Amino acid sequence: MSRPARAGQDPRVDNPIGLGVIFVNVLCDQLGLPLPAVPTLVVGGALAADGRLSAAGVYGLAVCACVLADSSWYVAGRLFGSRVLKLLCRISLTPDTCVNDTQGKFERWGSKLLIFAKFIPGLSLVAPPLAGATGMGSARFVFFSCLSALLWVGAALLGGVLLRRQIEQLLPHVAALGGAALAVILGLLLCYIAYKWWQRWRFYTALNMARISVDELYEHMKSGAAPVVLDVRSPTAQSMELRRIPGALHLPVQQVGEQMARLPRDRDIILYCTCPNEASAAQAARLLMSHGFRRVRPLYGGLDAWIAAGYAVEEIPAPAALGAGTVS
Fold first, then answer.
1. CA distances (Å), 28 to each of 70, 75, 123, 149, in order?
2. Pair (110, 142) in one structural domain
3. Could you tell me if 247 and 265 lie in one domain?
4. Residues 43 and 175 in one domain
5. Contact 118, 148 (CB under 8 A)
6. Of 284, 39, 264, 287, nearest in space to 170 by CA
7. Which residues contact 31 (CB under 8 A, 6 or more apart)?
8. In the predicted model, what is the mean pLDDT of residues 278-285?
9. Which of 126, 150, 184, 241 has the fewest CB within 10 Å, making it most exposed?
10. Which range marks the domain in which residue 297 is found?
């Protein structure tokens, strides 16, 4: 038997369906599904301000969904390391802000990156598994994840409170439209996904250039005019794979522009990384080519292909992997 509402209390304030929709939407969004949660949170904030939903329930469930999703990715990072990061980069709708870029920010900001990562598309999904893969302590991670969720959810709910009047005027029209409104929402979602995939296609098309295979590189290195081999992984990426191609010089992709004056123009320059589609190596090669370097090619398959082919590798001391890139 249901408990009757107290006098003056709106019986919809503890609406479990509305709270459940918010929880599931935020959870899916934070797990990486293309279901943006900010619009739902904004509407939830307006409904909470109007007394139609429990403000504490909306805030608490949304924060719990964020922390649950973050913790799942954190554990995956601890268990599977760089493999999870490569998978995320391969399926990401924003590959240009994927793993390597996040690693660079992580090196500059450390664990503080987690605080504002949710406000930056692309970073919010990669930062938790990266924290796990780099060995951040679980208690420290949960603290920063909770703080980030409180700020992100709070900002969205505050937006709903500020737009309360406008949303109140809009909701009756949306309800009246019924199935048509749902079709419009689904259509907008599909347009959003299509736009992101188009951006992804354009990004990889721009990086489409001739690669060199690991067999070609091996034969080339045995010849008299050995190429300059550049390892453009970030220090964080190196720390997760402490091996490199023999003789390779470490030059993180973010530093290529600063160091290009020290690179030879009369020798072949081969660049490699460990990201899908050699995205970082191709970005660095494109930058060099735009400054007049002509004998530049990314390594097809990157370091993973070199190792899989059974060619020799050098071990990298852990402290060196965390240091700055140098070219000699």
1. 11, 17, 16, 14
2. yes
3. yes
4. yes
5. yes
6. 39
7. 69, 72, 73
8. 87
9. 184
10. 214-321
DSSP-derived secondary structure letter, 299: B
Mean pLDDT in residue range 205-223:
85
Which residues, listed in sequence order, are joined to residue 218 by a DSSP beta bridge?
none
- Amino acid identity for residue 249 in this structure: L
Tokens of 137: 């302590």
Mean pLDDT of the chain: 82
Q: What band does 269 get if pLDDT is binned at 50, 70 and 90?
A: very high
Instruction: Please indicate, yes or no, whether residues 188 and 274 belong to a single structural domain of this protein.
Output: no
CATH of the domain at 281: 3.40.250.10
Q: Of 76-80, 130-134, 149-153, 221-225, which gets the smallest average pLDDT? A: 221-225
If asked whether residues 314 and 259 sit together in one domain, one would say: yes
pLDDT the model gives residue 223: 80
Choose the final residue of a domain: 152, 187, 206: 206
Q: Do 192 and 225 reside in the same domain of the chain?
A: no
Last residue of a domain, one of 174, 206, 238: 206
The H-or-E segment that residue 272 falls in is strand 269-272
> The pTM is what?
0.67
Can you list the alpha helix ranges (DSSP code H) found in the chain?
Answer: 16-31, 38-49, 55-80, 82-91, 99-109, 113-116, 123-133, 138-162, 164-177, 179-206, 214-222, 235-240, 256-259, 279-290, 302-308, 318-321
Report how many domains make up the chain.
2
Which DSSP string corresponds to 236-250?
HHHHHS-EE-TTPEE
Residue 229 belongs to a domain: yes
The amino acid present at 86, given as its one-letter code, is K
pLDDT tens per residue, range 95-111: 555 566 666 677 677 77
- The token pair that represents 59 in the structure block: 């805030």
The single residue listed with the structure tokens 């998978």 is 87
**Pair 102, 122: CB distance under 8 Å:** yes
279: tokens are 């995205």
Tokens representing residue 161 in the block: 């409170």
> CA quadruple 152, 25, 70, 127: dihedral positive or negative?
negative
